[in-house]
Amino acid sequence: MATAESTSPRMMSAAAARQTAAPGIQVAAPSRREFLYYIWGASIALLLGEASAGLIWFAFPRFKEGEFGGTFAFNPEELPSVGAAPTSVPAGRFHVTLTSDGLRALYGVCTHLGCLPKWVPTNNRFECPCHGSKFHLSGDWIEGPAPRNLDRFIATVTYADGTTLETPVDGGAIPLDLNRQITSIQIDTGARIIGALH
Question: Model pTM?
């Protein structure tokens, strides 16, 4: 009992000190106006953050290999013979053609209104089923409402000795040496060359 009485005044003085300090600190709840300011501020910050992220995602797209907008590895064994029907790659939206001039990767969309011209083997040309534009195997315009030749993608051909050839800046053909072994053909569907006006 003696120990309880002796410690009791010490405990009481500590509790009294706490009680006297506590009334000096008052935490008031935010008013309705302050609460609405906080909510509006957080909403605007969230909206601006989402818009900024979307803008950055749109401005700097990332295309994977093998999907449209990225690079396609075209198998050299599927290369058509000179003057034969083109090899179509629907996933990349392009046709690979080989003429006496060389290799071209043609964008498979008509330059008139964006229809999809098909290769017609009986006429030996591309024909647009919608409005009648016609194009040679090289992608050059023959007739119809299309204002220019078919667009081209940049292709890179690599030979076994390590030398490479790339589509010229004017969209012309890559002259191929068919006596040399081609190890890879890369088609960049993110780099389009606009067809020449006729």
Answer: 0.65
